[in-house]
Amino acid sequence: MTDTNLGIAVHELHKQFKDGPKAVDGISLAVAPGEIYGFLGPNGAGKSTTVHILTTLLRPDGGYATVQGYDVVKQGAQVRASIGAALQEAALDPMLTGREHMRLQTALQGLPRSTRRPRGNELLERVGLIDAADRRVGSYSGGMKRRLDLALALVHEPRVLFLDEPTTGLDPQSRSDLWREVSRLAREDGVTVFLTTQYLEEADVLADHVGIISRGRIVAEGTPEALKAEIGRPTLEVVPVDPADRQRFADVLARFGPAASSAKPSAVAVLLEDGADALASVIRGIDADSLRMDSFQVHKPTLDDVFLAKTGESFAQGDQGASASSEDESLQPAEAPA
Amino acid sequence: MRRFLDVTGAVAWRTIHHFLTQPSILVPSLLFPLFFFTAFSGALSGVEAIPGFDFPSGYAAFQFAFVMLQASAFGGVFAGFSIAADFESGFTRRLMLASPDRRGILAGYAVAALFRAVVVWVMLIVVALLVGMQIDGGALDLVGLYTLAALVNVTGLLFSAGVATRLRTMQAGPAMQMPVFLLLFLAPVYMPLELLEGWIHTAARLNPMTPLLELSRDFISGQPADLWAYAVVLTMFAVLALWALTGLRRAERAGG
User: Fold this and answer.
1) Which residue intervals make up region (Disordered) (chain A) (predicted)?
2) How many helices (DSSP H) and strands (DSSP E) are in chain B?
3) What is the pTM of this model?
4) What values do phi and psi take at A57, rounded to 5?
5) How far apart are CA B65 and CA B58, in angstroms?
6) Residue-wise pLDDT tens digits, B31-64
């Protein structure tokens, strides 16, 4: 597929902020039309910087990128006409109502006067805000603001939609509502969606393809299933009743595969070489040594395991380690997931 | 061009909407010029008796010209505050993402600044006529006066927009306000240039606002007007337009 046929094409993109590390360090990716691409990484990994470049808000230092076949540096106006974007901090005016935002956005996007009001109402209806349309946005909840932001991004029926951490800070219900709408846009309307997220589950559920970014570089790319299949084997995690028994547990488990990392400091984990078939043998081995377990859990491979395998650190560690690695993102405090 | 105007219209609509619906913006905008006019023309009317003060239309008209220019300049500067606030809140990103030609954003703020100035002008002239201010200039003089005021308004906006697009924070407020304040008050505000003495006379003589103020007083009193003051304001306009546009480019490079 050539760049002109792709929704998004990125080649060796670079961006470094003044006196800072490289926020984007040679990223290349391709997103087919109508596809949802999940750009997954911890805070400060370079996700937002990439989105800002692709939406023409920032200029790259090197490399090039096209959106709907338009060069993001040389054809900024055409790119902006093709895209909708809901960025990390919903850029809303607390003194305007939802309907007034629609009026503003439809005018900014140059919709014919006669279609502005009906289009605004249609989108407010679609995101469930029609009853709150005449309230000032300052009184909206976080979820309502996100939905309004999404509706605003859609007024001109863009072919490519950028969503920068769209569900950060949302409650589970609002999050699943937003997931449903994003899926519908891609499946029914054929909109190409570039979605950044720090939630593994979100990328797993929504994305056709996932790019995992760490410290400005893409460390893994593929479908969520393919990425997890690369890791292949499940992980067994055991928490001893007596923490002093950790080493004895580790010795027993070592017979079934290499040690694995665990998020719980009290746990001992192993990557099961023979898969789940080895579980009965593991239990027999623990029992034979008269060891007592507090908990025993088998994890199927997750995108976190992929991240761990590719970067050598867990997603949470990556978050801490990279939190100051990007000038723009380090300025944005991460909100705790609901 | 149509898309440029779409953006200009949308940005102007929002800024005017804020001006008209938020008393915290509207009321001071109307009260301050009125206060300056009534306070200066009332409390300082004795200046008329000073030998050498020969303004034919009276002290109220003498002050009216200054308050007109002051309100116009600050109307532009306050639009710069809106620009800075939008950068600080991130709203500018919405505008930048939707604008094929981002100069339309600046044009929108300029239209809103002009609207705001027109509202103040209308209120000022109504009050001035009610208190019996004498206008000796003809219709053409008044057109000249309001054109000059409009140019001062947009020039004020261009100056503050240049600051706002470079600093992109509300903390830029004093940097927008102070230079304009100094220029205005180092002009012959309370008495004619000829009656000023010492350093203040030198400062006023070199101040580019002085010819604009004197021209506006000539218009209102119907005296022969020295139109070269237009060259001064048009030069300021051109230089500050460049200042604002380069600031916009800088803000674009910084990501809005």
Assistant:
1) 317-338
2) 10, 0
3) 0.82
4) -80, -25
5) 11
6) 889 998 988 888 887 888 888 888 889 999 999 9
Would the CB atoms of B91 and A93 count as touching at under 8 Å?
Answer: yes
Tell me the pLDDT tens digit for each residue of A107-145: 999 999 999 999 999 999 999 899 999 999 999 998 899
How many angstroms separate the CA atoms of A99 and B231, rounded? 45
Q: Are B6 and A107 in contact (CB under 8 A)?
A: yes
CATH number of A233-300: 3.30.70.100
Give the domain ranges of chain A.
3-92+140-228, 233-300
A148-207 residues touching B, CB cutoff 8 A: 152
The 3-state DSSP class for residue A289 equals coil
From A91, A93, A110, residue closest to B2, measured CB to CB: A110
Burial (0-12, 13-18, 19+ Cβ within 10 Å), B40: buried
Picking from A59, A107, A108, the nearest residue to B253 by CB comes out as A59
Burial degree of A122 (CB within 10 A; 0-12, 13-18, 19+): middle
pLDDT in tens, A191-231: 999 999 888 888 888 999 999 998 899 998 999 888 877 76
Say if domain A3-92+140-228 classifies as CATH 3.30.420.10. no
pLDDT at A317: 58
- Cβ pairs bridging A and B (under 8 Å): 65
